[in-house]
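User: My instructor asked us to take a sequence, write out its structure as tokens, and then describe one feature of it. I'm not sure where to start. Here is the sequence I was given:
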Amino acid sequence: MSMPPPARPSLVLACVAAATLACPTPPPDGGAGEGEGENEGEGDPGPHSCVPDDDTDFPTPRADVTDAVGSAATFDVATWNIRNFPSSSSTVATVADMITSLDLDLLALQEVASQAAFDELLARLPHHEGVLSSHTYSDGAYQKLAVVYRCGALAPGPPALLFSGDGGAFPRPPLQVPFHYDDGTREFDFTVIVVHLKAGEDADALDRRGEAFIKLGNYLASYVASAAADEVIVLGDFNERVEDEPGTSNWRPLLDPTRFVVRTQPLADAGEASFLSSRNSLIDHIVTTRAFDDEVGAGVAVIPRVEFDVANYRAIVSDHRPVVLTLLGL
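Assistant: Let's start with the prediction itself. The structure tokens for your sequence are:
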């Protein structure tokens, strides 16, 4: 596996929800939107402690349902919209098998629609733990963001929700989680920011995503300039192709090559797709700050064709493929 399961630690590492991080204060909340965009809830993600656990009521997840992308020599991160998780009674077990088979170390998940299902997913992954957003819509429903990570070399810090009052630009507040990586040979700090921007192709959706790109770019510039953490990876469902849409310039705040690298740009240039629709578009992306170049090394982003390996994938799991970035510079 990418990072071998460690022995059970004597101390529990807890992802304790906190009001603030040891980093710049998130931008002031803006006005809430309406409907989908209203941001309710406590604002802080819920905790999940990192305790590798081989003693569960679930069978060991399968490692043969699809080809591995990760390896013992790499650190592999992914973004995956798992579409109103879970879609069926077999979804949770299937996703656990896929994460194990793909051999992934850290995943940014979107559209977790059941906290109980998320808890079951972690229980089925004895060497992974996770952080789940506390955000809900005004009617109590939700499509939560989450981070799932392999216990061992990865130690999370206090998570936070960004722009939690700005439902217009961010109908689902980005989930930020700082991590410390230490595999015994190399260690460094980095920050994960998971996004799920406004869906749709009408003018309102384009404008709201454009606002989100600007605010996210400004936030990242401030965050990196503060020296709190200059190694940042932003990943998730951006709901927009990486090239500028006709008549818009939404991506431009993140296209400055001196500050950011859109790791999915080569996939877009090659005509790859992450969203399995009639348009088969690439809307799920991974962006890193330039400071992450050493860790990424010669690593590239790939989109595994999981729908050909998992029967009824679109019905049981998602209409999105996972997008994986392999870090080779560790």
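For the description part of your assignment, you could build on this observation: The two ends are 15 Å apart (CA to CA). Try explaining in your own words what that tells you about the chain.
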